[in-house]
Amino acid sequence: MIGKPVGLAEFLRVFDRVEELGQPAVELRYPRRGPGRRPRGAEDPYHAITRWCEVLGAAEGPLAGLRVGVKDNIAVAGVPMTEGLAPALSTVPSGDAAVVERLLDAGARITAKTSISPSDPVFGIPRNPHDPRFSAGASSAGSAVAVVTGLVDAAIGVDQGGSVRNPAAYCGIVGMKPTHGLVPTYGLAYWDHTLDHIGPMTTTVAANAALLEVLAGADWRDPHCTWTAPVRARYTGTPGEGIADLRIGVVEEALDPVGCTAGTLEAFERACERLRDLGAKVEPVSIPLWSDSAVIWFAVLTSGLMAMAGSNGQGYGHLGRIDVDRLATVAGQYRRGEREVPWLASILPAAYEYIQETRLGVPFGKAQNLRLELRRQVEHRLDEVDLLITPTTPTGPELLDELGTDEFLLADYVRAMTNTTPANLTGHPALTVPSGPGDNELPTGLQIIGRMFDERTVYRAGLSFEDPQFS
């Protein structure tokens, strides 16, 4: 029997009841902290820091006393979070991100929030410490610069398309994008739950592995959905194992087809020779969709970012915890027109609406299917070899006076990201380690990609490869 239709007023009583129920609280484990302060004068010559702070964790632990910088789109309770926006749009989180809790539990000290934007008009454009005329790289540039210059001992970055690995390579340090879902993203200002990754940035591979051991593992609040439940593992027990038994595939489409410069190719060939000298079998492999990964990524990201904006920065279809206070603040900013869709804000919404109206959104669906095919291609090659390698970036850093001008086209951006976006689309772990000088005698990076949740083998190769001549 069909009942009487429910009226709107009656249905809204459901939400009245939700409002009446208490908000479940999450305990702040280390409540002694202050809001910190902006850098002054010569404290930050390369524009790495948005805010100094001091949050002390446990008195003992594997990271006891380590000074860690946290990218300024990751929540540190009580410390303003800019997300690369104007300071007036900062939110002040009431709780710590999962990764911040884990750092503090391990004895680390959070001493800085690091700059996000590679072209920040408020805090200054992060400059490459090796030559300040050049860029320090993508949006985790502040974290990379802070590590290189010793402002922090290690830093945490966020990588949705290469933003840990790109600046790590440009600045000559180690950066890891872990397997998707291995490190919880709860407390991040999300872009897309299928692309979001948080990873460590350090001066050495051993230090990087030690940080990942602390950061990794499932968290009950996490919005990630993974194919396999992430578990904690040992990554630091690999020194001395060597790589003589490893088969390593050189992705052919990551070289000339993506426009690698002569300097990049020379550094990469030196890296390949070093791996061969260490006993690894290095051979070419083909991944046909590799060189188109950046355009697939752009289509996936466009859909994801618009969904994130429509949900006030939370995303749809996940089972993670929501910071209700932050949601309300962000929602109000969107409705007042103060906040825009992050990144290419003036273009992305128009492109999204155009594709929806003129092509019924079909390119977004096709991009998702191409993403799955890319993952199948990568998995197939990793059935044949133990690891894949590429240059982390096809070129060296750009001159800062060229950034933001008509000379820096979208095609240049696509080129810079082509070798990093595949691992974001597929979810595989990817480590960049310094591989010597390239363009303009600035650092280059060797990218090492492994099987899902096999960070141990990735670190094993990185530890063997690491040598003072490449740092």
Automatic annotation (TrEMBL):
Keywords, alphabetical: Hydrolase
Entry keyword annotation includes Hydrolase: yes
Record-given protein name: Amidase
Short name of one Pfam family: Amidase
Superkingdom of origin organism: Bacteria
EC number: 3.5.1.4
InterPro entries: Amidase (IPR000120), Amidase_dom (IPR023631), AS_sf (IPR036928)
One function term, GO molecular function aspect: amidase activity
Residue stretches making up the Amidase domain: 57-458
Presence of keyword Hydrolase: yes
